[in-house]
Amino acid sequence: MHTDTTVSGELLARHEGHAVFLTLNRPDQRNALSLQMVGGLLAQLEQAEQDPAIRALVLRGSGENFSAGADVTDLLAAQQRVEAGDSDAFATMNRRFGELLQRFECSPLVTIAALEGAIMGGGLGLACVADIAIASETARFSLPETRLGLLPAQVAPFIVARIGSSQTRRLALAGASIGAGEALRIGLVHASVKDARELDTAVAQQLAAVGRCAPDALAATKRLLLDSSPVPLAGDLDQLLDHAARQFSDAVQGHEGREGTRAFIEKRPPEWQQQ
Question: Does residue 162 lie in a domain region?
Fold first, then answer.
């Protein structure tokens, strides 16, 4: 059964059978994850978890991109709060993304990411906390933070859990960009398809498979698998992400962070970039 698509700020939500489809809806910004969008995702997740008819949640981006990561305008807003006396503004902003990833990681729902175009930074983090990730041939995955003088503070533990330390180092320390085929090879995604139509078909097949599973058994099995995973235990992960948020705050307020942000806004290479 289909229900009408509803619009909540920068997010589209649609109920279809036993699934909720959430679409990041900032196509002009390649679905950059604003704090408003983060709040909407958390609210929609909580609402879906409270509905006993819902077993799965599908994440997708509009305009043929999944997400280009954090929204630079939130960085500028945090800078204004710092100048007004809020020394924790950057850490608080950054930690909010970690909260989003933790909540999706630990949700009893089966989460599916349908990935196209840009999957960068925080968008890559979301892809890595999805239980099932499917990419089209247009997908490009990257961690660009170091090119901006920053660090992938909140996403790093979840990416390491998905693809291991060695492959995460390659992505993070070289700012590498990889396609769907390479992402499949290293285990970042679980399937690669040709185009958007095949992506729709693959998602539908996964939802049909989920629909054949008992809902309580799904939730309990996911909890068991999470307890067996290499992601740090809840308390340790909270401490790790809190510390990472403070590191991010230091980086973004340091010389490299300021220069990288200015260079991004001015669409020029930062001063450290070598040819």
Answer: yes
Asked if the structure places residue 250 within a domain, the reply is yes
> Whole domain around residue 125: which residue ranges?
6-194+214-266
Residue 151: closest CA among 237, 33, 248, 216: 248
Hey, what long-range contacts does 193-200 have (CB within 8 A, 24 or more apart)? 193/134, 193/135, 193/136, 193/137, 194/136, 194/137, 195/136, 195/137, 195/138, 196/64, 196/116, 196/136, 198/136, 199/114, 199/116, 199/134, 199/136, 200/114
In a domain, 201, yes or no: no
Q: Is the pTM of this model over 0.90?
A: yes
Strands 6-8, 11-16: pairing is: antiparallel
Query: Which of 59, 17, 32 has its CA nearest to residue 199?
Result: 59
Distance CA 176, CA 142 (A): 6
Give the pLDDT confidence of 15-46 residue by residue, as tens digits.
999 999 999 999 999 999 999 999 999 999 99
204-212: long-range contacts (C-beta < 8 A, 24 or more apart)?
Answer: 206/56, 206/112, 206/132, 206/134, 207/17, 207/18, 207/19, 207/56, 207/58, 207/112, 210/18, 210/19, 210/55, 210/56, 210/110, 211/17, 211/18, 211/55
pLDDT in tens, 71-121: 988 988 998 999 999 999 999 999 999 999 999 999 999 999 999 999 999
CATH number at residue 242: 3.90.226.10
Asked if residue 101 is part of any domain, the answer here is yes
Looking at the 3D structure of the chain, how many domains does it have?
A: 1
Return d(Cα 231, Cα 39) in angstroms, integer.
23
